[in-house]
Amino acid sequence: MKLTTALTTKPIFEVGAKSIVFFVPEKFSSKDLSAEFKNFEIDVHEFLMESKFTGSAGSFATLAVQGKGKKIVHLCFVGIGSAGKDKNFSLETMRRAVGTVIKFGISKKFETMVLQLPEATDFGLEVDYFVQQIVTITYIASYKFDKFITTISKEEREKTFEIGFAVAAKDLKKAKTGYQEGEVIGGSVNRAREWIDTPPSQLTPTVLADHAKKLAKEYGLKYTSFVEHDLKSMGMQGLAGVSAGSGQDAHFVILEYKSKKPKAPTIAFVGKGITFDSGGLSIKPANSMEDMKEDMAGAASVINALAAIAQLKPDVNVIGLAPITENMPGCHAQKPGDIVTFYNGKTAEIRNTDAEGRLILADALAYAAKHFKPDAIIDVATLTGACIYAVGPFFSALLSDNDDLTQRVQDAAKTSGDHVWRLPFTPDFKEAVKSPIADIQNVGNPAIAAGTITAAWFLRHFTEDIPWVHLDIASSAFNVPNISYFGKGATGSSVRLLIDVARNWKK
Ligand code: BES
Ligand code: MN
Ligand code: ZN
Known about the structure:
Bound molecules: ligand BES, manganese (II) ion, zinc ion
Strand content: 15-25%
CATH superfamily of the largest domain: Zn peptidases
Structural class: alpha/beta
Distance between the termini: 39 Å
Helix content: 25-40%
Number of helices: 15
CATH class of the largest domain: Alpha Beta
CATH architecture of the largest domain: 3-Layer(aba) Sandwich
């Protein structure tokens, strides 16, 4: 199935779509329903009452009627709940309502669907942003990693699912802006997911670096890449050390977006790119390894956020850095007990080769700080299993000792719908990564537990005094349950967030 989308100002019954979607508030009355329904033989309000459709968040009902020329049209009703204390409906409920209908349309193999968009003002929002969010979610909801399923015929794959978003004529101009942004954002999220879902022997470090190079060329980003041999001479033993057990070459990819605005501030995004995490010699148990192709989600997120930023052109310079390697055991592999020296000269004792993410990020963070002296650094990583238990699948964990940057990221989380939850990051936890024989060690002291926090303290040694936020996406990157617009596999978490941080930097 291929998704195509368009805006329309036509009355929805004249679009000629096979299915028509209505977003219905809770406790609706027959007056709230489309006047057009009067033309049907069936009393639509009566039908909704009969099918116990309430308009509550998540509620859904569908009815097939004969429209013009006796054609069958599927009417879909999806609940958007009730307005909150501020009299506004919830955007997240709307996102999920959109997710529900798009997945339904796909499962029913509808070829065409038109969504009657509610008024942005009912959500307390501007039309452009509201449409941007709906279009983004439409793309996200339509994603499915099915290219390895051989029972899907070529015709089926080529079939299009045409979706129209019906807006009032007065809103068209702003809606168009939001629509185009949504296409870019949703497309970037899905490209990240595609990479993350790709089997690890097909998405090797070199393949991932090539993907980044291709995007850079397509969207006009500056591309720099270092390979393992360069990394060794540059003193990046963190990244080179993790790569030692792998037959694949490590890469350090740097993408640069330069704003047209003179003297624009610069922000850096750093993403963990472990294309497969076996644990190395501190090997993982089999079941913990099953989904470890997801361990490059941070890098995928940063690279694809940069591709979107290059198209949306915000007034801020953005650098994307991605250290990329596999973490494998083998006769050349790094060993517990080894001590490595990072790009900034600090040393760490490797106590567990499975705590590899912080090692490759350490070099990338130190490089970002030294070479770009950015106004802020945000790193994104599937860093700790502990994060899954700390915040659960619906949030990424945020750690920082900078309240201003934290606020910016929390704001962007809210507007983008890419949710974060801040964890404590007080100096008490810093003790956990002290080593008796090196500057620091790569695992935390068990007495201090809190693996997500102590991992962040490890990273803090490489960010100098630059405002910095660490996002642990181990919780949110893969297999998020119960959210209508996701499904099995990669979610692309943090792509929307990073794009939003950059777009709203000057405000
Ligand atoms: N990539 C893992 C973290 C992870 C776990 C991501 C589950 C997504 C889902 C990371 O490299 C890792 O192995 N972390 C260890 C650190 C420990 C050895 C200190 C962990 O969390 O167990
Ligand atoms: Mn690991
Ligand atoms: Zn890992």
